[in-house]
From TrEMBL:
GO terms for molecular function: transmembrane transporter activity. Keywords: Cell inner membrane, Cell membrane, Membrane, Transmembrane, Transmembrane helix, Transport. This is ABC transporter permease. It is a multi-pass membrane protein. Residues 1-20 are annotated as: Disordered. Pfam families: BPD_transp_2. The keyword Cell cycle does not apply. It is found in: Cell membrane. InterPro entries: ABC_transp_permease. The chain crosses the membrane at residues 33-53, 65-98, 110-134, 140-157, 178-198, 229-251, 308-327. One of its GO terms (cellular component) is plasma membrane. The lineage of its organism: Bacteria, Bacillati, Actinomycetota, Actinomycetes, Kitasatosporales.
Amino acid sequence: MATDTQQPGHRLDKRPGGSGPPQAIRRFLLDNGALSALVVLVAILALVNGNFLTTTNLLNVGEQAAVTAILAFGVTFAIVAGGIDLSVGSVAAFSGIMLGWFTTTQGMPAFLGVILAILTGTACGLLNGVLIAYGKLPPFIATLAMLSAARGLLLVVSQGNPILMPDSLSWMGENIGGWLPTQVIVMIVMGLIAALILTRTYNGRAMYAIGGNEEAAHLSGIRVRRQKLVIYTLVGAFAAVAGIVLTSRLASAQPTGAEGFELDAIAAVVIGGASLAGGVGKASGTLIGALILAVLRNGLNLLDVSAFWQQVVIGVVIALAVLLDTLRRRT
């Protein structure tokens, strides 16, 4: 059974000269490519723009990374298990719209609206799991269908109009102690939860086993279909939390909210060292991947780089991340 400690980065290098300092450095850079890239990126941006390392700007980077990171933590579960989820952006937006609908249109208490919004995303994830585990649909198709359905439902509920959040929810978009954004705290908490699930629970071990070899996982006694239900239900729940965070940040639920965020979430997971083939990935790597995307966008904005060129740069970074993963597996 594959576990987090069985990732390629933990293999012993038994080739001649593998114990020398140059080889050790090379091995470290390959195994920690995302972290190394983040450090280099921060250093470069700090040198070319004096405003980058200011406290205000770094907290802004954290806020920008929060929604993507929370979505990506959920997507990590699916990718580790050899699947994918294209619906997380739409599910996040749908959950945000339902939060606004429950608390504003229906006049429900804020805490109840938050719970129902999380249940909305969880139900969408559960439906994805049912279609994949029992309907035998490929994850790509099932979640693509949910992407469209959730986006359509939120337009039906909102009638295509933004829904303002009540004052009782405004605290979620504020700073604690006047400086630490609530979104950053939620991101850290969700990251810790994701890490605990992946490394300390039976479900996490099952994700690695299924992603490593689904047939072998089944033969070893893992109830694969039940685990897929759990996996995609978790993805939906994380997407709902991301939707709540996004809604609180904007102070309103937007019908067009989180469009394209599923691509950023998948990119963050891949940049963070996960393999789309399954069996490899961890929450810390996903967080680093989300931070790289946020730092890139923030730094390019500070340098007045066109938004069009920013997309080109991010595409190149994703390609390099996949190439690095391929190189790491060959060594």
